[in-house]
Write a structure and sequence with these properties.
By secondary structure, the protein is α+β, with helices and mostly antiparallel strands. About 15% of the residues lie in helices and about 35% in strands. It is built from five helices and twelve strands. The longest helix has 13 residues, at about 60-70.
């Protein structure tokens, strides 16, 4: 999601929004990433939180496609990278089918290609590669930025409640915010610097936030944590491009492609620092790159995405 897409009115703000207990299982693992097997290599997914753009959330499609791909590889192989293109908008009113092609099974690597389909047409094509856990004499990583721990920061919900108190807020914005408060978004966020989430200031297109899946997943299945991270990685990602242009109005923002590399084990239900920047925008497109850090400083995953950004044409002041 991008916060620039989330605008429109609706239900009154609940006085005391329901809090999802950390003991409750994450809806991502009980529902969203549970695929129904229809035939060999063919799966059906359920749609959950729908952005106000009314196109399916890209993270949901990537996460489900990766679940489908992972079903056909052995337990000893782990996704180390994925690359995908979003070729059509996903329709939130019908389920998505995932068709898995076993491209190659090697001794150390397996590659899968997945087509996400609606009405017989692809909406996403994804390639994922899985690797045997192997020792390496080469090991390095950048250092995690020093930031306050998530316990010392306000949640996105706290910041939203503050913004909802403003009298001149657009109805569309209210609706998007209320959806977050109603826990429809199965992700928790704590911005390191709330100003980097504000549309009232111009800043460098760089921001950091702590993020984790809402609810409990538990230790255990690393394959599942990787799919949850794929879901999470598309949240508040492309919107980083707009930090330098807070006054511009977005007509259409959609991810075009997305790539991820998984470096180390992690738990997607534990806080990870998402360090995101946008090195470039131009030609109605913008590039974002991100690093997901475990809170102990280990680099868990890297992400990159290009998105389409069409702006609303400025009003012709001469006619006013
Ligand atoms: C941000 C996080 C997210 O999760 S976004 C969700 C995941 N990503 C997606 O859903 C993107 C899926 N992909 C797509 O929808 C398509 O590949 C897109 C990017 C639209 C491809 O665009 P395009 O090749 O232009 O498709 P199209 O010809 O069918 O047109 C789609 C709508 O865009 C319009 N369009 C086209 N060209 C222009 C242009 N130069 N300037 C302004 N508008 C243009 C078309 O008229 C069409 O509009 P409409 O849908 O008929 O209202």
């Amino acid at each position: 999601m991008s916060e620039h897409e989330e605008k429109e009115d609706g239900d009154p703000l609940p006085e005391c929004p329901p809090m999802v207990s950390r003991d409750l299982k994450s809806i991502l693992v009980t529902s969203v990433l549970q695929l129904e097997e229809i035939d060999v290599g063919l799966y059906r997914g359920k749609n959950h939180w729908i952005p106000l753009s009314r196109r399916l959330f890209g993270g949901q499609i990537i996460g489900q496609a990766l679940v489908a791909a992972a079903k056909s590889v052995g337990d000893h192989l782990y996704a180390h990278s994925l690359h995908c293109y979003f070729v059509r908008a996903g329709d939130p009113d019908i389920p998505v089918l995932y068709n898995v092609d076993r491209v190659r099974d090697g001794r150390s690597f397996c590659v899968r290609s997945v087509k996400a389909i609606q009405r017989g047409e692809p909406i996403l094509v994804l390639q994922a590669s899985f690797h045997l856990d192997q020792p390496s004499p080469l090991m390095h990583q950048f250092s995690m930025p020093e930031v306050p721990p998530p316990e010392d920061l306000l949640s996105l919900e706290d910041l939203i409640r503050f913004v909802l108190g403003k009298p001149d807020l657009e109805q569309k914005v209210k609706q998007g915010f209320n959806k977050v408060l109603a826990n429809e978004v199965p992700i928790e966020v704590r911005p390191v610097n709330p100003l980097q989430f504000s549309r009232e200031v111009t800043t460098e297109p760089k921001r950091m936030f702590w993020v984790r899946a809402r609810g409990h997943i538990g230790e255990g299945n690393m394959k599942l944590h990787v799919c949850v991270a794929a879901y999470i990685s598309d949240y508040s990602f492309l919107g980083t491009t707009m930090m330098s242009y807070p006054a511009k109005r977005v007509k259409m923002m959609a991810s075009l492609d997305h790539a991820m590399w998984f470096h180390n084990t992690f738990r997607a239900d534990e806080w990870m620092l998402y360090e995101v920047d946008s090195p470039w925008a131009g030609g109605s497109r913008g590039l974002v790159q991100g690093r997901l850090w475990r809170r102990d400083g280990v680099l868990a995953a890297s992400c990159c995405q290009e998105g389409l950004i069409r702006l609303t044409a400025p009003k012709d002041r001469s006619k006013l």
